[in-house]
Amino acid sequence: MAQHDVEITISKSGEVKVHVKGVKGKGCLEYAEWLAEVVGKVKDRQLTSEYYEPETKAKIHLRTQQQTGN
User: Fold this and answer.
1) Which end of the chain is more exposed for a tag (fewer CB within 10 A), N or C?
2) Is residue 9 part of a domain?
3) Phi first, then psi: what are they for 16, rounded to 5°?
4) Rounded distance between C-alpha atoms, residue 21 and residue 37, angstroms
5) Domain of 33, in residue numbers
6) Is 19 inside any structural domain?
7) Is residue 34 one of the residues assigned to a domain?
8) How many CB atoms lie within 10 A of CB 25?
9) DSSP labels, 2-68
10) How many structural domains comprise the chain?
């Protein structure tokens, strides 16, 4: 099974940058859509060379876990 990494950087101004690594083809867009739901509106999108490589068949299961304080 291929390993997928998601690198998230948050600047002091609150801007969030996300780099999805190890996902070939359009599969990275699944991560991007999920993260947009969590983080908010997408300001800009830059596709890497991995986007243009042949897709690998893989299912991506993403979930969000929210913790509440007492």
Assistant:
1) C
2) yes
3) -110, 130
4) 19
5) 5-41+48-52
6) yes
7) yes
8) 15
9) ---EEEEEE-TT--EEEEEES--GGGHHHHHHHHHHHH---------GGGGSPPP------------
10) 1
CA 32 to chain centroid, in Å, comes to 4
- Counting every residue, how long is the chain? 70
Q: Token pair for residue 11?
A: 């600047």
Six-digit token string for 8: 């998230």
The pLDDT, as a whole number, for residue 69 is: 58
Burial label, 4 (beta-carbon count in 10 A; 0-12, 13-18, 19+): middle
pLDDT tens track of the chain, all 70 residues?
A: 567 788 888 889 988 888 888 888 888 888 888 888 887 888 888 888 888 888 766 555 666 666 565 5
